[in-house]
Amino acid sequence: MASNTVHLISNMNRIIIALTAVLACASAQVFLNQPIPLALHQPAPVREASLAHPAVVENALHEAQYPDQFRNNFYKNPHIADALAKQSWFGDKEMPVFEREADKIPRDRIVKIFKNAGFVRRR
Fold first, then answer.
1. CA distances from 111 to 64, 70, 102, 122, 123 (A)
2. Confidence check: pLDDT of 3 > 80
3. Where are the alpha helices (DSSP H) in 33-105?
């Protein structure tokens, strides 16, 4: 009878250890899904506000993908780049445009106007 009691206690210990291991794994999954504490967050990098119109930025990105033989070396000259930058500064009573009225006109309507004016061949 003592042997059966020891064997029963040994089996119960195994069950308790297995149940504890299962519960520990299940509770660890909850902690893995918790958000990072605020103290560990890194501040977002500060970006300078750009006054460039989104269409201008998009066009510059497209032009940056051109091969070198299609790029104009004229604009790589630092003196010319500085002169163009100064020329594009806002003058008296000028302000940046963020919403262009021309962007609201459908492109097919513009093509139709050019075709009717004779600037584009009709197919």
1. 27, 26, 13, 10, 12
2. no
3. 54-64, 78-87
Supply the pLDDT for residue 20: 80
Q: In sequence order, what are the residues at sequence separation of 6 or more whose Cβ sits closer than 8 angstroms to the Cβ of residue 63?
A: 71
Q: What sign does the dihedral 23-25-29-31 (CA atoms) show?
A: positive
Q: How many CB atoms lie within 10 A of CB 115?
A: 13
Cβ–Cβ contacts within 10 Å for residue 20, how many?
10
Instruction: Please give the Cα distance from 101 to 110 (Å, whole number).
Output: 13
Is the Cβ–Cβ distance between 55 and 101 less than 8 Å? Answer: no
> Distance between CA atoms of 38 and 41, rounded to whole angstroms?
5
Q: pLDDT digit string (tens) for 46-70?
A: 666 666 777 778 888 888 888 888 8
How many residues appear in the chain?
A: 123
Q: Structural domain boundaries of the chain?
A: 2-32
14-17-21-22 Cα dihedral, nearest 10 degrees: 60
